[in-house]
Amino acid sequence: MIRWLLITIIALGSIAIGVGIWLFQKDSPAYLIQFIKDKAANQNVALSIHYNGDSWIEVNEQVPLPLASTVKTIVAIEYAKQAADGRINPEQKVRLEELDHFYLPKTDGGAHAAWLADINAKDDVPLSEVANGMIAYSSNANTEYLMQVLGLTNINAVPKSLKLSHHEPLYPIVSASYIPVQLMHEKGLTKKEVVNELKNMDMDEYRNRAIAIHKKWLHEPLDKQEREKLLKVMDMDVQKIWSDRLPRATTSDYVTIMQNLNSKAYFSETIHHYLDPVMEQLMQNPANREWLMHAGQKGGSTAFVLTNAMYATDQGGNQTEFAFFSNDLTLIEQARLSRNLNSFQLKFLTDEAFQTQVKEELSHLRKGE
Fold it and tell me: Closest Cα partner for 362 from 67, 70, 64, 61?
């Protein structure tokens, strides 16, 4: 049996669901088909699959949905671009205490701690390993650190350069989680009042507050007392607002990114030299190398969101690009999608009859406007 090792590390913690390494199991690939059929009309789910250059399935592909940690793909691309042209040195040492400035325990499902445990570093790591931890383990702390190193302006130029028409700007999403506590300090608000304040806050102010908090944390990280306040404030109502305000894009946008990565022709060979080791964690598994030429992916989730973008070229030269976004999930839907997404991808990659079934059952669904 072919095993498709998805190192799908779902970030964003008790604010999200943590690290998971998914192996192919005898699950139900058809669950994803039925879920999309049931939910497509409310436009809280979207799917784009391209196969050998053909648009195989497009469901709500123009509907922007929260990306969660799938957005870290954009940061990885900018990292590789700056490494390729010499603006950053991937071997530059980064002190672990610098990453700690952006680390909030109990908010990332143990992702950052798992990365630290696996690398077994004492004092510092190369910048390349920070990027690896961002994608392979979905460390939020590493992501925020890289935003500072690479520059948000440069990172937000990536979607524009790729002509992604619906991609919203990135901002420091861990820093944004402190905005409720900040409002309580500034205005003496109760938790209920904070919820109303957040709901009425426009996105420009929200992003600017997150960026300001991020800059402050560079020199003044939260003390233990403030971290505890943050955890107490982040109940499900506040988490839902935080989740809904995450950067959004469409599956059309991300299937385009996956095509660019899969082709090995859109970006330069030098960029791929730095990008592929970060994005293509799947290829570390010897079993995958037996049937895949290359493959990469990034997934993400919150308590309400599950997203994944993947690309693969098999040894026969067949190319697949896949983007699946979902929002407003129940706990049961979240669990069932998490369990069956991997088996859906594997079956699509390896079973022509299933590819046909997917097209027949989903192609009639209305596309998002």
Answer: 61
Closest CA to 25 of 343, 346, 344, 351: 343
Among the listed residues 157, 131, 158, the one whose alpha carbon sits nearest the alpha carbon of residue 146: 131
Q: Give, in order, the Cα–Cα distances in Å from 311 to each of 28, 115, 280.
A: 21, 24, 9
pTM over 0.85: yes
* Angle of CA points 189, 194, 198, to nearest 5°: 140
Taken as a whole, the chain contains a residue count of 369
Residue 307 · residue 322 · CB < 8 Å: no
For residue 159, count other CB atoms closer than 10 A to its CB. Answer: 22
* Dist. CA 45–CA 250, nearest whole Å: 10
Q: Helical H runs in 151-268?
A: 152-161, 173-176, 179-187, 191-200, 203-219, 224-233, 236-244, 251-263
Radius of gyration of the chain (CA): 20
* The one-letter amino acid at 45: V
For 101-144, write each residue's pLDDT tens digit: 999 988 888 999 999 999 988 899 999 999 999 999 999 999 99
Which residue in 140, 162, 15, 197 sits closest to 74, CA to CA? 162
**Nearby residues of 86 by Cβ (< 8 Å), 6 or more positions away:** none
- Which strand ranges, in their side-by-side order, compose the sheet holding 292-301? 54-59, 45-51, 319-326, 306-314, 292-301
pLDDT of residue 2: 32
* Other Cβ atoms closer than 10 A to 339: 14
* Two structure tokens written together for 128: 């390349």
Contact call for residues 18 and 109 (beta carbons, < 8 A): yes
334, two tokens: 């979240």
Q: Is the dihedral of CA 254, 255, 257, 261 positive or negative?
A: positive
Beta strand 292-301 with 248-249 is unpaired
